[in-house]
Amino acid sequence: MQASLSATDIACRRGDRLLLRGLSLDLGPGDVLQVSGANGTGKSSLLRILAGLLTPYAGEVHREGAIGLLDEKPALDEHLPLGKALDFWSAIDGRTNPHRPADMADLMDVPVRFLSTGQRKRAALARLDSQRPKIWLLDEPLNGLDRDAIVNVGAMVDVHRRAKGICVLASHQPFPLDDIQVLDLAEYAP
Question: Do residues 41 and 166 lie in contact, with contact meaning Cβ atoms separated by under 8 Å?
């Protein structure tokens, strides 16, 4: 089955505030879309709508393929060493070989609570990659990362799209990948 993600005439309301309206998109295998916009314009809310975690105020979303969402909460047990936290999710996902980034090998015995923001983000990306969802939704995937880690995230997304995956990412930062579509939420402000 080919991955696909489409949204038609989406509107998002948070409380009494309409954040965006009239947003449509149509993504297929290999597409990467960067959602940009000022703080509070609805980037994270849009990703939650696309994931099915938030109901749009108006419009419809259709998706084919498993979805993986990476947001500000990495879903790794703070009290477990990183290796055991990754093993937990591998067991849940039915995988016998958890993905362990080579550059994090020396951190596998360190409790997650002692990892830096960037280290947690990289571990969460490794977890997402090992789940093998066809659609990646990444909320600020570059926050807290150094230059080398940013390049590695770009490479991970490139491998994912070459494997016919879809990636939608919300980021204020330029993403280190050529040939991606950019969607500015300012165009959909009420």
Answer: no
